[in-house]
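Revision sheet: structure tokens.
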Amino acid sequence: MGLSDIGNLVCLPFEEIEPGQPTNVHDLFLQEAINVLRVSQRNWLPLIVKETGVDQYKVVANTFVYAAISRAGLEEAWCIVVDDSNETAEACSVLAQDGLPRINLSTASRKQIATALDYLLKQPGTLLKGVNLSSATSRIESAPRKYWQTFEPITKLKCKITKGKLKELKKVFYLEPEPIPEIITDPVLLDTFTAAELKKMAGKRGFKRYSKLSKANLIKRLSENKKPEPLPEVVTDPALLDTFTVTELKKIAKKRGITGYSKLKKADLIKRLSETD
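Predicted:
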């Protein structure tokens, strides 16, 4: 077979077809399907397969039908041949309801979030019992999801989804985060940082008189889309120096020709660097 067979309905020897993902359909339905196939001797609902080699195929979708054919003992199976792209495999699997759809939480719409949460909440024995659908949807939608590296931030949204319940969300959601921008101005994203972290950002962006600001005022200042003031060539402000790491402070000390800095602790480095020449 070749490209010309893609999309065609073909009858293949069953021994040439590898199984795909195992089906999770209850044996009640499977046994009835086996009985039907033994009478009809053909699968009116075709397998969706891709070619993996010469006279070799693998099931992409309709895994339930494959399991029934296997146990019914049919020697041939009707199949539709598709290309081997991941996009096609995912589309076929979703349309055949072979497994749960996977939703990118980084970019999901409000409707997608609500629908997925509603599904999870209605599952028997769900870990999300007690979670309010409307509240959880709103809080997750408005959070800076596109930057999340893990699902941990959800536990801080006050929507009754604790760390132990995150594995339930992972059944349908996954993350493809964007890199956090070097200069953050998004108030929602800024709100996820502590006041101490915000002060370090303010220091590195050259803001002045920020050390006593509240978290709300720090967010307000940092979210202003203004060009930050350049750092002074020689930094002597202790509050600004405190925003640097020990390694960065040692590099500054070296550039300024300060001796004996290599074994100094951060507090001592700041003290030395804040002394004006």
